[in-house]
Amino acid sequence: MNVxxxxxxxxxxxxVGLLVCAGLVAITLxxxxxxxxxxxxxxxxxxxxxxxxxxxxxxxxxxEEIEAMRKPKAVERLAREKLxxxxxxxxxxxxxQPPAAAATR
Length: 105
Fold this sequence. Notes:
The chain has about 100 residues and is mainly alpha-helical. The chain has helices spanning about 5-70, 70-85, 100-105.
């Protein structure tokens, strides 16, 4: 039995369709702030991962420098280069860069 209800069947389908659309919009509005928050967290995690990578590289360099300083030869070389120390009866020559103004003339 197919009974034609006329406009009421069309209106019923339209109302059901609008209710489904309204439900989808409501769900989107409820979860949109959470989605944006998650995106901010992902960006922050990536930024912090980069910072961790840089800090690990710096820590590795520092460990290598500390390990090098445990060798007497390295300490002696550093004292000679940075502090200008020399052994007895040894002559130290210090080379300086010319001033920038004198180099351009």
